[in-house]
Specification:
Strand content: under 5%
Largest sheet: 3 strands, antiparallel
Number of helices: 19
Radius of gyration: 22 Å
Distance between the termini: 21 Å
Strand order of the largest sheet: 1-2-3
Number of domains: 1
Number of strands: 3
Amino acid sequence: MNIAWYKDFDWLTVLIWVAITAFGLVGIYSATLGPVSEFLPAHIQENFAKQLTWVALSLVVVIVIQFTSPRSFQQLSYLFYFVALLLTASTIFIGIEVNGAKSWLDFGGIRFQTSEIMKIAVILAVANYLTSRRNIEAVNLKSAMVATSMILLPVVIIILQNDTGSALIFLPLIPVMLFLSGLPYGIALMMISPAIITYASIISWQYGVAATLFFTLVIYLLQKRPWLGITSLVTGLLLVVAVNVALTDILQPHQRNRIEAFVNPFQDPQGAGWNIIQAKTAISSGGIYGKGFMQGTQTQLRFLPEQWTDFIFCVIAEDFGLIGGGLAILALLLLLMRLLSNAVAMKTPFAQLVIVGVVTILFTHILVNLGSVMGIVPVIGVPLPFMSYGGSSFLANSIMLGVCLNLYFRQREMSPFA
C-alpha cells in the first residue's frame, strides 16, 4: 500500500455500512432491552451485547481483508468453494437444528450458519469460472450449465437442511452473473421468468398463465428462436400446474397456511396470518415521525414475531416512523448503488462480477425481507442485511463487503485481463 492509501480507500461505503449497522443496533436494543424485556427470556435480552461483539469482530475481519492480495480471492476461489461446500453438507449429519433448519455448526460453543459463508464462496468461484471464459453464446451453453450447477449444488444441500429461505437467495445469481458474462437477453429472461410465474401462480392460476404467455412472447421476440419460445411456454404452464398441485395435494397444512396467509392474512388472523398482520400494524402505527425510541406498542407488548431478526424493520418503522424507516431503506439502497458504481469503475472482469454478485445477494435479502414484512411476498425467514440480529449473517455479509472494498481499493494490483 502506498503512503496516501487513505485517499484511495472507499470511505463512503464504510460510512454507509456504519449507518446501516447503527440502525440495526438501535432496533435490536429496542426489541430486546426496552419494556418488552420483561416478556423475553434472559438469552434473548443478551442479543444486543452479542450483536455488538459480532460487529466488532466483523470490523476486525474487514480490516484484515484489506491487507490481503486481491489475486488471492481468485486463486483460492475453488478451494474456498470446496471447503464451504463440505461444511454446508456436513450439517446434514452433524449440524445443530435451529427453528426447524439443520443448518448450523458448533465451533467451541459458537454457532455458525454454513449457508452464510457459502454465499461468498459461490460468488468467488462462479466469477472465477465465468471470467476464464470470454463469451457464453445461446448456441453453446456448456459454460452456462457448469456455472449454474455450481450455484444449484449448494442450493440443493441447503434445501436438504430444511432452510428453503436461505436456498432461494442463491437463485438470482444464475441469471445476473450469466447475463453479465455474455448470456443473451432472452436466455437470461427465461431463467428469471420461472420465479415470477411461480409468484403469480400462488396468487391465482390465471395470473400464472398470463405471465407465462407474456414471457413466451417477449423471449421469442428477443431471440427469434421458436424452440426457446416453445420451451418457455411449456415450462411456464408446467409451473402453473405444479404450483396448484402443490397447494392442494403436496404441501403440509402449515406450509399451505403460510402461503394462504400471504394471499389473505385475515383468513386466519390468529394463526397463519398473525405475522403479516402484526408486521403491517407496526409499520403503519409509526406514522410519519414514529412513536419514539422503545415506545412502539406492537414491539414493546410483544405482538411482533422474531422482532430482533426477520421483523427488525417493523421495530425501526414503529419507533421512528416513515422518516426513520425511509432513511433505513435509503441507506441500504445507497450501499447497493455505491457498490454498483465501484463495479462499473473496475477494469477487471473478475472484480466486476464479484461485486455485482454481492449486490445481487444483498438486494435479494433486502427485497425478500422488506417484501415479507409488508405482505408483498410470503414470509420465508430471511434477515435484513446488517440490521437483523444474527452473528453469522452479519459476519458473512461483512466479509462480502470487505472483499468488495479490497477489490476496489487494490484494483491496480490486478491485470485488466485477469
